[in-house]
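Dear support,

We are seeing what looks like truncated structure output for some complexes. This example has two components. We would appreciate it if you could run it in full and send us the complete token output so we can diff it against ours.
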Amino acid sequence: MTSIILLSVFGIANLFIGFTKSKRILLPLALLFLIVVFGVNLLSWNDTQTYFNNMITIDNYAVAFTGIMVLTTLLLIPFSQRYVEEGDSNLAEYYSLLLFSLVGAVMMVSYENIIMLFVGIEILSIAMYVVAGSNKKSLRSNEAALKYFLMGSFFTGILLFGIVLIYGATGTFNITEIGAAQIATDGVMSSMFILGLLMVVIGISFKISAAPFHFWAPDVYEGSPTFFTAFMSTVVKTAGVAAFFKLMAAAFAASYAAWFPTLIAITVLTLVVGNIGAVVQSSAKRMLAYSSISHAGYLLMSLIAFNSNSASSILFYSLSYASASIAAFGVLMLVADQKGSDKYEAFNGLGKSNPLLAFVMTVAMLSLAGIPLTAGFFAKFFVFSAVLEDPNMLWLVVIAVILAAVGIYYYFRVVIAMYMQPATNFEKVRVGSFASFTLIFITVLTLLLGIAPALINDLL
Amino acid sequence: MITALLLFWPALAALLVLLIKGQGAKKVAFVAALIEFALSLFALSGFDAQNGNTQLMLNLPWVESAGISFSIGMDGISILMVLLTTFLVPLIVLSSFKHDYKNPNVFYALILFMQTGLIGVFVAMDAFLFYFMWEVALIPIYFIAAVWGGENRIKVTFKFFVYTIFGSLFMLAAFVYLYLQTPGTHTSDINAFYQLALSSGEQSWIFWFLFIAFAIKMPIFPFHTWQPDTYTESPTQATMLLSGIMLKMGIYGVIRWLLPVVPMGVSEWTNLVLILSIIGIVYGSIIAIRQRDLKRLIAYSSIAHVGLIAAGIFTLNEQGLQGGVIQMLSHGINVVGLFFIIDIIFTRTNTREISSLGGITQNAKALSIFFMILLLGSVALPLTNGFVGEFLLLSGVFQYNYIYGGVAGLTIILGAVYMLRMFQGVMFGTKSEATENFTDLTFNEKAVLIPLVIMVFWIGLFPNTFLSISEPAVMNLLTIINR
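Here is the complete output from our reference environment:
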């Protein structure tokens, strides 16, 4: 709860500090705010509390996911250094919008009432609609914002409609009570309830860019400034999947049979669309956009497993995916700024000109591809073993395995470009001090989790 | 403890080598590899060869809540494979001394890092540790081959990488499934896998999931398509690592993780695997006869040799398995030696085409002798190492089915054809433009070849030194398979 309040206060404070002349303090200040929130959040570990007449529960699940999302933002902020250097006049607003959307994200992992879930999603989304279009002079950025906003509003409507139908069927917004209502009727529910349930599933699937509700994602991710794309494909996705699992586990466990086939179809489609879509891209940024869709698919697999291992596998996957993604988007940002292109060719010869940057990117790619020694391997491993607890789901794992092999193809195109293609120009890519420290930190974290996964996996 | 030291020393040394600027890196890498060899001899001295069980064990919790442990140890088969690795790596490093690769520190660090992966595969007693090490060995060799390789390296090595990862992901899926079948709070310990009671239907598909991974690595026909190109395009050191040691990972995987884990699945598919292996023998040999490029020729001959090893171990009798183990050692030694000799010829003449070589014997007596010995080892002449292995393997295949044995026996004749044809074309005849001023072996080159040749005769004359180490472990394995 304190993290929600702190984030809101810091967000507003940040806006006011933006009026001062010295823009230089904004970045360190934003980092400081987030470090404080991260620390305060950890104080609630093993201390479950409910607030606002049972609207919000801060339990270990909420603390763990809040921690990951705050950490992800913390690791992302240093890459805004270019905005500082360019003297962007909206810097304070950018940071505030990120802090506000974190408020929404925290609510999405700690809600006890389905209305709070809706409010959280909206707080998160509205900030995202704005930042998607923050590059006002770019046509693509404007397109991204408009597309995201229109599609987002539409699916928000569907989500809200679903929530209302569920309320109509059960007479409550409280997720535990909704769960109890189904047990009372032995899981036999009215068609109104089922319809509402499916609408909620569709609404949240949109937010995490699961296929077939993903059509906005590649355009929005590509059009938005890379800094915010990184935020969307990590924090937003983590919040979405964590909220999804919490909702299903608490409210709809009893009507498992009603949503399970739908979710399987969504997952398989997401895996296929994400991985196959990424193969045909010529831009590394768009490839990362599709890869983000495919990772939504792997995350949904642990939801499908729906057992005691699901929460911890979502947690581990989110962290490993987020850290690798931040590194990948971070390096992409630096390279694209310098070379003016986000195609694969922009990475040519990076292994020669910036060995460190190339190494960071390689580790990130290996982790996203799920190769041992990196966190991504254990992430996939935990997901697969959670799903295989039910031996009948072997086919799903086989599909995921084949698609993971496809994934290696497109991730390695970047690696090949960096080390094996001759460089067009040997210009060294400039890396700021904050950014290079962050990149090294992420790489160490990725390798550490790849060797000692128990650090995170045993939390939940 | 010594096992852990063996496992981690190369990785540690790799970090050390990374820090060294310039060509001094190769010397440090060589010393590090020699220390590793000494460590393995020390491990051998503490190893009880009469005992078929896993020894020198170390078992630490790794992902405790999931029952995954860092469990390493060696039985007779493992220790022979470890010795092969630690014996070959210093020679492979030494063989590169005349090349000045760019970024030498990274090159040698990757070789040493790969050694950790290779040793890890041979000592892992936990399924996930095995898988982990399996991939740890792959990543460095991919970069070695793809960064320092020939012209077509990017496409070729990428094919190799995707191929092997694709296979190993199936292995991972099978391991996860097996792991979830273990009783209670699950464990991925190898002995728990051996004790699983799986239905024959389960064993049948698990067999294929595991077999594909191992068959791609070996490679067995028809999973071999990555191999000739990769061997040809890689720098010689990578080719040596791939053919000398990495290929053994696949065979070792079959012996340790396939045969005893799903014996019913194996017996269901043995016939098919034997047919594939024997096709590989004949196919590899015939294509080798037609090759003009020396490296490609040895690459195809390797397919033939591996086919025989695979056929032998899948017969599931003592001769077959023992022959497989000893032939893994022999093949590793011979193929590394042959690739080195090709490298020597290539650096002097700048060609690997048989037709543009010839008459080398006139200038290089020492080279001819070493080449001849290694070649005879490879065609399995009695008194050389190849004979022991092939004899045992063929007798194993004969016991299973005499027709298969007969066809597999063609390997001896065909092997002699392509090997002697190659020797004739390269070493005898009139000198060509390229071989006009051929110089004989340098000291460094002899230092690589002499230990290899000693081993050719040692295994050929006193195979019992090695067979007696692996025998109790093989018997142990057979009891598990036949339970």
